[in-house]
C-alpha cells in the first residue's frame, strides 16, 4: 500500500468520518435485445405499453428499436439499485407478450443489415437528433455491431469526501477543480487495472457465427454455428466491438479534465474524409448522419469508463462537465452475465465498489504515452486471452503474470474492502473479494469459462445456450409479477412519458436543420 493510500484510508477510518462512505451512490444501465419466441431479433416497434423511449426515465432504447435499456436511480445501497432493476424487468415482461429479453451481450441471430430497425424517438427535433445519430452509427460502423449489449455501472463518492481530502492534503485549488481532478485520477487508475475486471467478469468468449457473416476474423469454430477463442473473456470488448479507423486514432488524454474535453471537442469538429464521402444526406435527401467529422457527438467515443455529470435540459454532456465538473464515473466494460437473471449481482457490485474506491484513493500519476499504450495492450490481451495459463501482461515495460498481478491487486484492494465493511457493519465486501480471489486461483470459475463449459458439456451452440438462458430468466421474471401498487406506479410513468413527448412535439419551433446547426455549435472549440 502506498503512503498516500494509507493516509487517505486512515483519515476515512476515524470515528467522526466512519459513516461517510455510506453515501456512495450506485446506478445501473442495462441493455437487452428484444427477441421473438424463436430467438430472432424482434422487428416490432418499441411497445407503447413501455412508454416513450425519448422521455421515460427508466425504460428507453439504445441503438436499435429492439435494444431496450433499463435505467435505475442512483442509490446509496446497491441492493436497492438491483431491486429497482428487478422491478423494471418484471414490469417490462408483463408488457412484452411472447417476446423476451436476450440475456447475453453478444446478439441473437440478426436479420440482414437493412432489416435491423434503428430506434425511433418521434417527431421532435431532439427525437430526430437521436434517430439521425443512430443512422450515422449504421453508416460508420454497421448495424450488427450496434446490437451488442452491456451493463454500465455508475458510481460516485460522497460529495463531502472531496473537501475533507482537499483540506488534509493542503490543496488550495477551487473545490470543483479538485473534485474533477480526483475523479480523473480514478479514471487513470481504472485504465491501469481494468484488465482485472475483464478477467473476473468477462462473459462473452463465444459468438453466433451469423454475427460475423462476410467479415474477416481470427476466431475458431466450436461446433456448428459457434465461433470463439479458447482463452477469451470478453469478445464484446475486443476489436470485434466498437472499433473503426477514425476512433482508432482518437486517444483522449486523462491527465486533466480540460484536455479530455478539448480532445472530444476537436473530434466532434474535425472532418474525416471517409465520412465526408458518405455525405450528410442520402440520395433521397434524407439525413444519414449529423456531421461528417471524426465523431458526430461526444457520446460516440467508445471507452471503458467515462467521467459524467448530470446534464440540465438541453445541455450537452461536454457542456455539463465543463461548467460544473465531474460528478460520477460510468463503468462501461461489464458484460451481461448470462447465468444471472439481472446480468449482474450484489457480489459484483460490492467488488466494484472496493475496486473503484481503491482507484480513487491510491496514488495516480499522470500517464505518459508509453504507459497509456501499455494499459490498452493489457486490456486487449486480457479480453482475448485472459484465461490462458501463465499469460504475461506488461507492467512498466516488464512482464508480469496476470494471475500473480491480480492476486497482488486484491491484496492492495483489501484495506478498501475492509473500510467499506467497517462502515456498513458487515463483511460483504470481503466476501466479494474472496469470490474474485477464487477466480484468479481457478480460472474455471470465471463466467467466460462457465459459458464455454456449458457449450461443450451440454452440446449447445452459442445461440442455443443463449436462447435457453433467456427462456429461463424470462420464466423467472414472469413468475414474480409486481404488486398492484408498483404496477400502477409504472403505468402512470408510462402515461406521463407519452404525454411529455406529445407536449414536446406540439411546442416545437424552427426547422430541424437550424436545430442541428445550433446543437453542433454549442460545443465547438473556441
UniProtKB/TrEMBL annotation:
The keyword Nucleotide-binding applies. It catalyses: L-cysteine + L-glutamate + ATP = gamma-L-glutamyl-L-cysteine + ADP + phosphate + H(+). Pathway: Sulfur metabolism; glutathione biosynthesis; glutathione from L-cysteine and L-glutamate: step 1/2. Residues 10-380 form the Glutamate--cysteine ligase domain. Keywords: ATP-binding, Glutathione biosynthesis, Ligase, Nucleotide-binding. One of its GO terms (molecular function) is glutamate-cysteine ligase activity. Its EC number is 6.3.2.2. The keyword Transcription does not apply. Belongs to the glutamate--cysteine ligase type 1 family. Type 1 subfamily. PANTHER family: GLUTAMATE--CYSTEINE LIGASE. This is Glutamate--cysteine ligase. It comes from Geopseudomonas aromaticivorans.
Amino acid at each position: 500500500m502506498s503512503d498516500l493510500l494509507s493516509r487517505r484510508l486512515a483519515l476515512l477510518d476515524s470515528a467522526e468520518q466512519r459513516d461517510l462512505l455510506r453515501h456512495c451512490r450506485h446506478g445501473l444501465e442495462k441493455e437487452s435485445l428484444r427477441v421473438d419466441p424463436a430467438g430472432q431479433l424482434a422487428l416490432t416497434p418499441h411497445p407503447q405499453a413501455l412508454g416513450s423511449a425519448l422521455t421515460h426515465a427508466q425504460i428507453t432504447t439504445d441503438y436499435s428499436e429492439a435494444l431496450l435499456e433499463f435505467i435505475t436511480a442512483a442509490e446509496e445501497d446497491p441492493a436497492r439499485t438491483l431491486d429497482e432493476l428487478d422491478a423494471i424487468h418484471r414490469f417490462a415482461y408483463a408488457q412484452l407478450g411472447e417476446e423476451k429479453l436476450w440475456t447475453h451481450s453478444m446478439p441473437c441471430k440478426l436479420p440482414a443489415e437493412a432489416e435491423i430497425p434503428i430506434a425511433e424517438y418521434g417527431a421532435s427535433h431532439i427525437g430526430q437528433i437521436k434517430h439521425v445519430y443512430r443512422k450515422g452509427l449504421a453508416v460508420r460502423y454497421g448495424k450488427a455491431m450496434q446490437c451488442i449489449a452491456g451493463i454500465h455501472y455508475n458510481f460516485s463518492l460522497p460529495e463531502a469526501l472531496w473537501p475533507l481530502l482537499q483540506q488534509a492534503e493542503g490543496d488550495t485549488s477551487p473545490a470543483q477543480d479538485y473534485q474533477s481532478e480526483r475523479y480523473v485520477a480514478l479514471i487513470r487508475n481504472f485504465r491501469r487495472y481494468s484488465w482485472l475486471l475483464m478477467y473476473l467478469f468477462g462473459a462473452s468468449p463465444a459468438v453466433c457465427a451469423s454475427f460475423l457473416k462476410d467479415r474477416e476474423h481470427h476466431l475458431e469454430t466450436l461446433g456448428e454455428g459457434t465461433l470463439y477463442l479458447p482463452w477469451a473473456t470478453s469478445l464484446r470488448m475486443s476489436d470485434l466491438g466498437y472499433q473503426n479507423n477514425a476512433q482508432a486514432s482518437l486517444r483522449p488524454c486523462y491527465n486533466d479534465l480540460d484536455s479530455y474535453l478539448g480532445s472530444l471537442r476537436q473530434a466532434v469538429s474535425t472532418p474525416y474524409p471517409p465520412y465526408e464521402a458518405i455525405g450528410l444526406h442520402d440520395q433521397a435527401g434524407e439525413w444519414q448522419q449529423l456531421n461528417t467529422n471524426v465523431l458526430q457527438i461526444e457520446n460516440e467515443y467508445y471507452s471503458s469508463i467515462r467521467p459524467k455529470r448530470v446534464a440540465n435540459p438541453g445541455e450537452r454532456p461536454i457542456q455539463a462537465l465543463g461548467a460544473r465538473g465531474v460528478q460520477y464515473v460510468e463503468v462501461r466494460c461489464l458484460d451481461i452475465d448470462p447465468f444471472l437473471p439481472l446480468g449482474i449481482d450484489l457480489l459484483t457490485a460490492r467488488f466494484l465498489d472496493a475496486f473503484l474506491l481503491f482507484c480513487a484513493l491510491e496514488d495516480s500519476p499522470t500517464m505518459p504515452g508509453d504507459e497509456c499504450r501499455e494499459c490498452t495492450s493489457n486490456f486487449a490481451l486480457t479480453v482475448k486471452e485472459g484465461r490462458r495459463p501463465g499469460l504475461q501482461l506488461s507492467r512498466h515495460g516488464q512482464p508480469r503474470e496476470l494471475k500473480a498481478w491480480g492476486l497482488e491487486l486484491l491484496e492492495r484492494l483489501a484495506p478498501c474492502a475492509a473500510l467499506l465493511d467497517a462502515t456498513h457493519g458487515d463483511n460483504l465486501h470481503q466476501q466479494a473479494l474472496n469470490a474474485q480471489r477464487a477466480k484468479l486461483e481457478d480460472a474455471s470459475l470465471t463466467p467466460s469459462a462457465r459459458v464455454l463449459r456449458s457449450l461443450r458439456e451440454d452440446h449447445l451452440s452459442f445461440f442455443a445456450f443463449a436462447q435457453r438462458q433467456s427462456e429461463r430468466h424470462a420464466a423467472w421474471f414472469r413468475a414474480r409479477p409486481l404488486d398492484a401498487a408498483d404496477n400502477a406506479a409504472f403505468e402512470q410513468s408510462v402515461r406521463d412519458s407519452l404525454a411529455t413527448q406529445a407536449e414536446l412535439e406540439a411546442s416545437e419551433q424552427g426547422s430541424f436543420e437550424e436545430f442541428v446547426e445550433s446543437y453542433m455549435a454549442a460545443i465547438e472549440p473556441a
